[in-house]
Specification:
mainly beta; disordered N terminus; four-stranded antiparallel beta sheet; 1 helix
Length: 148
């Protein structure tokens, strides 16, 4: 049997190597990372905030680098919930646009029938100069209760 997490990880690594970012568009164009920002570890460097629904109905999130190190890859997980708060979707996105400290961008995924609210987290990140991606699969379980 094929392990979905292993398959997903392999696809994400391939995406990283090809440096393709799907569903993302850079919205900030500053020349250098802000030097007055704090050093941040992998799990507090990125802030994901729901922005709006896209024209196709999917969720769009603002991706903000709150630290001073440039982030080169983020593995984002989107969770969709129905009107009663039950999870109806879990989608993943490999975000491969360099995001300098203090910069923001957006990331989106396609709509899912019955999803009325969305949340996002990330389970992988690589900073500029890192030899490998830092991963924590526990941050993105297949099932995640709303608000947790």
């Amino acid at each position: 049997m094929i392990n979905p997490r292993t398959t997903t990880l392999a696809l994400l690594v391939c995406s990283l190597l090809s440096a393709v970012a799907v569903g993302c568009s850079k919205t900030s164009d500053s020349g250098a990372a802000a030097s007055n920002l704090p050093e941040k570890g992998p799990w507090d460097a990125i802030k994901l905030t729901y922005s709006k629904k896209t024209s196709s109905g999917g969720p769009e999130f603002i991706v903000e680098n709150t630290g001073k190190k440039t982030v080169k890859t983020i593995f984002i997980d989107f969770y969709g919930y129905d009107a009663k708060g039950a999870q109806v979707a879990h989608k993943e996105l490999s975000f491969n646009i360099p995001l300098k400290g203090g910069d923001k961008s957006d990331a989106s995924t396609s709509d899912v029938k019955d999803a009325v609210t969305w949340e996002a987290t990330y389970h992988g990140i690589a900073f500029d100069g890192d030899a490998k991606v830092t991963l924590d699969p526990k941050r993105a379980p297949d099932k995640k209760p709303k608000g947790k």
